[in-house]
Automatic annotation (TrEMBL):
InterPro entries: Glyco_hydro_19_cat (IPR000726), Lysozyme-like_dom_sf (IPR023346). GO terms for biological process: cell wall macromolecule catabolic process; chitin catabolic process; defense response to fungus. This is Glycoside hydrolase family 19 catalytic domain-containing protein. It comes from the Eukaryota. It comes from Gossypium mustelinum (Cotton).
Length: 93
């Protein structure tokens, strides 16, 4: 619920109350579920290409959205997003 600089709160991203800044857009941090992964675990999982942890999380998210009968939207992964507070994008693809 609470932002922890330099990261926004997951809540503000989920409800659409936050628009990405120009630096967010340049870092690939566009609205979608992938940004919430970046907020919670970006330094470990994001900006490194595909990985099983992110794929599993996306699968669970899609499953729960299906159970609730809601759309899961676009931009589900953070494979090509720079983590918040990190100026370097590492891509192992």
């Amino acid at each position: 619920m609470t932002a922890q600089s330099p990261k926004p709160s997951c809540h503000s991203v989920i409800i659409g109350a936050r628009s990405p800044s120009s630096s967010d857009q340049a870092a690939g941090r566009v609205p979608g579920y992938g940004v919430t992964t970046n907020i919670s675990n970006g330094g470990v999982e994001c900006g490194k290409g595909r990985n099983p942890e992110v794929e599993d999380r996306i699968g669970f998210y899609k499953r729960y959205c299906g159970m609730l009968g809601i759309s899961y939207g676009n931009n589900l992964d953070c494979y090509n997003q720079r983590p918040f507070g990190n100026g370097v994008l590492v891509n192992s693809m």
